[in-house]
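Exercise 4. Each item below gives a protein and its sequence. For each, produce the structure-token representation.

Item: ABC transporter permease (Clostridium sartagoforme).
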Amino acid sequence: MREIKGIRPYLPFTRNVFQRLISYKANVIIFMIGDFFMLAVTYYLWKAIYGSADGDILNGFGFNEMIIYIFISFITSIMISVDISYDISREVKDGSIAINLVRPLNYERRMFFQGLGNVFYNFIVIFIGGFSITTFLFYKFFGYVSLGGILIYLLSVIMGIFINFYYSYIFGLISFKITNMWGLSQIMQSVVNLLSGMLIPIAFFPGWAQAITKLLPFSSSIYTPTMIYLGKINGSEILWALGLQLFWIVILMVVSKFMWKSLIKNLTILGG
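Answer:
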């Protein structure tokens, strides 16, 4: 009961973000059209690559597996999207963070529940439909669907949400020192897109790059759950992958708390 009462003050932040996102129906349609075209371009790109390849298998992926990879990595990247770095930067710029820091609420927890509004929105608007279509295609291509694999995938996605949140939160805290975060945010997103396996499966990287990238938190957020869904991570490898995700959650959490204590002492409020 105490834990439920503890999170109750933060639930309005989740609800407000969800309602704000769902109210702009035109934006929803535009983004969905843009996402559809991006998926279409990616599909035809890989179709051309496989069409010109000597064999049917490239780096352990058949063409049908690559199609599933494209879909599941895409919806996974949307599902774990908890980009609150912009919100923190905006509050520092306009001075509203001064009021928010005075409130008897934990700032980190408040930003987390604010990010959950975005997660619930993506889950309802995109993930449910996208995941259903992808699973149907998986069954059509391979003739089976692993319920256990799906459950482990969902668990991995949840941990990916935490990884992505703390990664974004850490970058948001940097705005306490660097006022204009636009350029840094672009770099941050580019790094995530490349090293998470969202654009290109990490299996296509050189051997030395794979060894390094698989140990980083970026691959744990998207590549790990995607490979679990495809069944390319099995047995003890799953325990290692989930353990690595948990490891990065703890590490990023500790780093974020250290940065908060260090940066909050010298915060300069610009607006007000």
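Check: The chain has a mean pLDDT of 86.
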